[in-house]
Amino acid sequence: MNNIKVDIAIIGAGPGGYVAAIVAAKEGKTVAIIEKDKLGGTCTNYGCIPTKAMLASVSVMEEIENAKRIGLNVEKVDLNFSDVIKHRNRAVTASRKGIELLLQKAGVNILFGNGIISEGKNIIVKDDKNDEIANITYDKLIIATGSTPVKFPPFNMDEVWTSDDIWNIENLPSNIGIIGGGVIGCEFATFFAKSGVNVTILELMPQLIPTEDEDIAKELLDNLKKNKNLNIYCNVKVTECNKNENSNEKRFLVKAQMSDGNFKEFSFDNILLSVGRKPVLPEGIDKLGVKISERGFIEINEYMQTSNPNVYAIGDVTGRLMLAHTASKQGEIAIENILGRKNSIRYSDIPSVIFTLPEIASVGLREKDCKKNGINYKIGICPFISNGKARAMGLTKGFAKVITEVETDKILGVSIIGPHATDMIMEGVTAVSKEMKVEELFQFVHPHPTLTETIIEAALASIDKAIHL
Ligand code: FAD
Q1: What class, spelled out in words, does domain 2-149+278-347 have in CATH?
Q2: pLDDT (tens digit, 9 = 90+) per residue, 176-189?
Q3: pLDDT category, 232, cuts 50, 70, 90?
Q4: Ranges for all domains in the chain classified under CATH 3.50.50.60
Q5: CB-based burial of residue 74 (10 Å sphere; 0-12 exposed, 13-18 middle, 19+ buried)?
């Protein structure tokens, strides 16, 4: 068995763990990272990268379908699913190899195996055969073990897919029921619907992507509904899911209570369950005495430190804004604090990005947050149809929405649905995190013609000073 002594041991090599490892190594610390599956974690292998690679294909397809309006005649666009998968796999492999190279270059000790918390400041690493392959002694430990999809009755059957096991399909299904119309459900629905699959979304809450602004969710619903093969039901509670005994019919029978109180039966060949994720805790965690919340997440303070001062936790396992860039930022902050430089994050400044068609991105407060917290707010909306660049591109769906505080004109939140929303949100991030007033943001000259002009117009509209609206 390999005995290794390091300054920092990290369990989990997702975007939280691997970024923390590189930052720490570059600061001169000795680091070991333990991964039981694949480098890059959920993000690289089962999340951000593969979904975005597949969505890139249907996004280009939609652009080609709309190309006539900018003067291009394209006869027919065919989606070849096995080629889409090849493209997706290439993107995933390149990202994973890139991470391996970065870790190696930084001098991080990579160990593949299950990291198990042992007595004292030790981690035992076991391989697939359950043989102990290493003992790591650390000064500080970072737990970055991520999360996994939840599966519960009546859906706990092997045949029901989650975002972890959908990746092995080789052919497009003819139909799919998506249970949960949150971010993951809507991204998959976008891909499958654009690929010609009959899709039905069943969402418990009154709107799609319940975390997002109501106007944004409504615009998304209106756009998704344009796909004739996509049915969306909100305010729906699934009560039963059974395998269909009649092998000539669809494989699953689902019963749901609809918004009007009546029950409706659906039948699907395939089901994707996308109703949330739960934390993954390493074996032996009880030996560390770290506090775990009622929902099973590791509790941390603003410095990413757990109730055990030598143990830090980052990423999905902490249950804060479960996004790759949150995990990475928490990783950087954990290292800063281990190095004695007090640093923290304001979670309200972290943007969320959703790669539906059209894209969605937001930062700061939504209207419902303002209402809940009794904040005196006003809103400004700038539709992309009023933007020169959007018109020139023929991409005029959606709008930018800015929320400002009545008393101060401070920008509290920015939400965008439309072309390149996920790239444009950085202006919102700057404005919200620097607590800028509308006039301050307006001092920056926005290049013309660009899509970013929608953000400044929406901000100006919120204080009744819009120029082009
Ligand atoms: P993970 O990425 O889950 O990594 C944890 C790693 O720890 C895993 O590799 C696991 O194998 C390993 N591990 C666990 N226990 C042990 C152990 N005991 N020993 C050794 N190794 C262990 N986020 C975005 O920001 N943008 C997106 O577009 C986006 N799209 C997504 C799409 C989907 C379908 C999904 C499911 C998620 C998406 N996310 C997205 C969320 C993002 O993937 C996660 O927030 C992010 O991966 C969390 O990073 P992490 O480092 O905390 O954990």
Answers
A1: alpha beta
A2: 999 999 999 999 99
A3: very high
A4: 2-149+278-347, 166-273
A5: exposed
* pLDDT digit string, tens, across residues 346-402: 999 999 999 999 999 999 999 999 999 999 999 999 999 999 999 999 999 999 999
The pTM (predicted TM-score) of the whole model is 0.97
DSSP characters over 291-314: -B-TTSPBP--TTSB-SSTTEEE-
CATH number of 166-273: 3.50.50.60
Long-range Cβ contact pairs of 157-161 (< 8 A, separation 24 or more) = 157/241, 157/243, 159/243, 159/251, 159/252, 159/271, 160/241, 160/252, 160/271, 160/272, 160/273, 161/270, 161/271, 161/272, 161/273
Separation CA 373–CA 438 (nearest Å):
21
Q: Ligand 1 center to residue 148 CA distance, Å? A: 8
Residue 98: per-residue pLDDT: 98
Catalytic-residue membership of 87: no
Determine the Cα angle at 211 with ends 208 and 212, to 5°.
75
Does 273 have pLDDT greater than 90?
yes
Give the Cβ contact number of residue 253 at 10 Å. Answer: 17
Tell me, using a 6 A CB cutoff, whether residue 316 lines ligand 1. Answer: yes
Please give the pLDDT value at position 285.
98
∠ CA 68-73-78, rounded to 5°: 95
State if residue 272 touches ligand 1 by the CB under 6 angstroms criterion: no
Architecture of the domain defined by 358-462? 2-Layer Sandwich (3.30)
- Antiparallel, parallel or unpaired: β 411-418 and 359-364: antiparallel
pLDDT digits (tens, 9 = 90+) for 302-312: 999 999 999 99
Query: What residue has token string 């305010």?
Result: 235
Ligand 1 atom nearest to 149, measured from its CA: 36
315 within ligand 1 shell (Cβ under 6 A): yes
Place of tokens 């397809």: 61
The gap between the terminal CA atoms of the chain, to the nearest Å, is: 69
Closest CA to 317 of 345, 290, 348: 290
Q: How far away, in angstroms, is 42 Cα from ligand 1 center? A: 3
